[in-house]
Amino acid sequence: MSEPFPRWQQLLLGLAGIFLLMLVPWTIAVTMGVRPIILPPLPTILQTAASLLTGGGLISAALVSLLRVNVGFALALVTAVPLGILLGRYRLMFLAAEPSVESFRFVIPFAWIPLAILWFGTAETGKIFIIWYAGFFVLLLPTISAVLSVDRDLVKAARTLGAGEFTIFRKVVLPAILPELVTAMRVAFAICWISILAAELVASRAGLGYLIADARELLQTDVVIVGMIVIGCIGAFYNWLFGWFERRVGH
Amino acid sequence: MTVKIEARGVGKQYSVGRGGTPFAALQGVDLDVQEGEFLCIVGPSGCGKSTFLQMVAGLEPVSEGSLKINGHPVRGPGADRGMVFQSYALFPWRTVMGNIEFGLEVKGHGARERREIALRCAHNVGLRGFEQAYPNQLSGGMKQRVGIARALANDPEVLLMDEPFAAVDAQTREMLQEEVLSIWRKANRTVLFVTHSVQEAVYLGSRIAVMTARPGHIKTILDVDLPYPRDITSAEFGNLMKPVYAVLKDEVLKAAHAAVAQPSETAA
């Protein structure tokens, strides 16, 4: 991909965008007399952010959410990718699994929250389950289609060089699908991140989602907004991380 | 001379054919490939010559008849047979060395030994200086050198080549043909070489098997009694090409008449 603008200019443009699209309208609204409970002024947000950071509440909430999303995402990765490779390689298994896969993918993670509470209560397992579910299908389908598009001659070449099925999975199929896989991981992580926050809003005693839900009850609009900003920043950071990884593995 | 590859009544049917009826790609292929010979198979497009090669490689199961290597029925691929593909089939995420080392890795050779063997194979086919390059940095000719080196690294008794030079330019092709001949003569390997070019077959082969239109079988086998290196501009060379052309032309015409739903390919 060509980059018509140098890196620092891109950064500057991004900052200008935040300023013009968010901070300016915000300040205008506040100076025009919007009540702090509807929209707190910027300095209040900064103060709240500072006190939440030093008080530890924000960092521990973020760590709880991050731990959950990382565990759930990792579980989704280690289950969806091997299964996707199998379904992509063996037509019979694919035909058996396709109807279930195709219907589950329309049941959004949030719809599982009631069942997750019934099954697991408010235990960690329930949250992890929802994240796993959120990531699983988003990873499974691109893995299958990537495996289906692996150059058949590469597999044939590996076989004539003496490779068995497992070696082919590990040394041919997996590296061949890696670029598509990383793209899918980026999308899946975003969905997992959104899902954990939704789950925490209704069924949790900790995490960023809980922080927001709790602050809403107490009408602490500033805390709600700080929570939202942190969610956005962490999401953007992971997106950047996967994007960097994507550029590295793309051949 | 001992028989290396023995095909008796070999056939290949695809069960899900066009319109649901099974169709035969190959039927009644009888062929003896002698140890150490360079046998070229020519035939019209779609006659199943590549299918036959893949069956020898163990990549396609044999539907009927018997196919033996060293007297044993072919059961899947093995490191005793190396294959070179028209599409090169190189692993794009591996360097030249990484590609050549693949088979040695599978066999479980240690890193140092792998490196030694791979370097020797790379240098044998003129890849010196390109050891750390990736396939997408190489020309078609260089890619196929990697394909050949990769197959040779396993030290196979039989080298199977499926139209290996069809996608490279004419000058490179001549050079690569030269090198394949020298590889063959140096190590006394058996080479089974599929091509659609009569000239290539007469230039390379110690014998030429001409296949019929689909369902393919061996129509004629011709000896090429010309010493190497052969001169393609000589009168003897031209005289040897004539009978091969004559046989092939009939079959190409038959194939053209029979081609109903056949994807368009040009036959030489």
Describe the structure.
With about 250 residues, chain A is mainly alpha-helical. Chain A has a single domain (about 55-250), classed as MetI-like (MetI-like fold, Orthogonal Bundle), CATH 1.10.3720.10. Chain A contains 10 helices and no strands. Chain A is globular and about 75 Å long. Chain B has helices spanning about 50-55, 95-105, 110-125, 140-155, 170-185, 200-205, 235-260, and strands at about 5-15, 25-35, 40, 65-70, 70-75, 80-85, 160, 190-195, 205-210, 220-225. A 6-stranded mixed beta sheet of chain B has the order 6-7-8-3-9-10, with helices on both faces. A 4-stranded antiparallel beta sheet of chain B has the order 2-1-4-5, covered by helices on one side.
What is the gist of this entry?
With 251 residues, chain A is mainly alpha-helical.
Remind me, CATH topology of the largest domain in chain B?
Answer: Rossmann fold
Name the CATH class of the largest domain in chain B.
Alpha Beta
Q: How many strands, what sense, and barrel or not for the largest sheet of chain B?
A: 6 strands, mixed
SSE run of chain A: HHHHHHHHHH
Name of the CATH class of chain A: Mainly Alpha
For the secondary structure, the number of strands of chain A is: 0
**Biggest sheet features of chain A:** none
- The number of distinct structural domains of chain A comes to 1
* Whole-number mean pLDDT of chain B: 90
Put simply, the count of helices of chain A is 10
Supply Rg of chain B: 19 Å
Helix content of chain B: 25-40%
Percent of sequence in beta strands of chain A: under 5%
CATH superfamily of the largest domain in chain B: P-loop containing nucleotide triphosphate hydrolases
CATH homologous superfamily designation of chain A: MetI-like
